Structures
1.
Amino acid sequence: MKKAKAAAPKGQVSKGAAAKPVKGRTSKKQVSRRTAGKSRKSTKKSAKKPTPIALYYWPTPNGHKISIMLEELGVPYALKPVNIGAGEQFAPAFLKISPNNRMPAIVDPDGPGGRPVSLFESGAILQYLGRKFGRFYPQDERARIQVEEWLFWQVGGLGPMAGQANHFLVYAKEAIPYARKRYADEVHRLLGVMNKRLAGRKYLAGTYSIADMACWSWVVSAAKYQPLDEFPHLAAWKERVGARPAVKRGYALGAELRKPMGDAQKAVLFNQRAR
């Protein structure tokens, strides 16, 4: 008996007669090989690298929300700095993406239906990315309700109030006692709400989610003028979230871009009216 030839190494085509189809007759093995070969070729052609999501960003608490989410997801993205101190947020091209002349914003080239889509407003962006990639935004309705409660709590409360407190305590030319106390007290109240919520919980909505990402950088900012000593559960949460590698990367993104704010930058950022 003739010895059978050894099979060709994987990824190579055998040079033996078995690799040649017999005229007028096709074996099942030959059909299988042809089909498999075509499948591998079509897979190679279709396996294109995903086009990065464009992130319009500046290193602020609102910007950090999205850089942290993209880092947590591990998806490719391209940084598009928007220098808010230089007024780049008022550029016509950017206003087409973000009509409120605020960053962050994104452009996803592979949006719904495979067509590009742009989004502004950090809360909307977090929800979109959570839905698209199926992470950090639960599908279970009861769990999702909790995430949305704390996401919108941040968007409507913690962010605006901490932003106003920071303005009057750090940037305002005049020291206005009423304004300083008004917003500092409200931030204190909101931090107390978070502290109670986090008693017995690791994260705001049970498991780590976009709600934690939305709140974290604002708490970091508020802690610069409001010590967290009296909020132990909140302080522990701040450290817990901040220890995540993706959070560290997202928070550090573009840190070198931010410079001390002078009068020229303040004139661009503050006291804007409709254009």
2.
Amino acid sequence: MASSSSIAIQINGHWGSFKGLGLRLLAIGDNCIDNYSELGRRFPGGNALNVAVYAHRVQGIEANYIGVMGTDEAGDFMLDQIRREGLSTEGVIRLPGESAVTTILIRGGERVFANYVEGVQKDAAFPSGLLPLVRGYDLVHYSVWGFGREHIPNIKRDGHPLLSCDFSNQLEHKALEAMPWLDFSFFSGKELITKGLDPEERLRELKARTHGLVVMTLGEHGSLVYDGEKMYKGKAKPVEVVDTLGAGDSYIAAFLCARLRGASIQSAIEEGHKAATETCKRLGGWGEN
């Protein structure tokens, strides 16, 4: 057992057992049950957890995850699904209470979020004692919906580790204050196109906040990456869409892993689209009920 200032927490394992098997990626933040209520099916999800799972599948990448789950059956289910993927659960912190659940409807292959229960992730604090462990990774990925971002300014030492965050469609969120320290800032911009706005213009505005790459996924319209000099473009691959849930997260994981392995920006974009295409072919991001 470990403890924070006000509540006992359970961490599933011994931190010293994380092993350096190759390039190391750590995802910190959100997880949830994606509950397809109309279909009677559920899957594990959440950006940070999804990125860890997808990165774990990439050869030469050691991926791990730190996040908070409840001590309920939903938390047990997610832990079981993580273990089935072969991803370590040592970084899962279990707090008394409910795990996060997102109720999802599918309309024309697109996900519609009907309801969200944040559970124990609400106001959860990242254990500062884990920061030395975090600094030992090659890349650390955060989510706009998860915890731990408050430590971002204090994590990087001499350019290490690389830092990433997915801001989803939150183009004005307070979390963007972390961008000056980030090497990769991800956004979902399909809504901009729907509203008749120019995603390239918005991407240039966002780049002014960071020295790093700014990436915007655009659904079937592809993706954009801006490095301050060149606007790189990616095309979405043709696919018969079953469900788009997790497609953006698989793009992020594939892009980050490709860059970690030395790929060019354009090659990383291609890897991202390949991964997103595969995810669109199934119901739910990963796992089974």
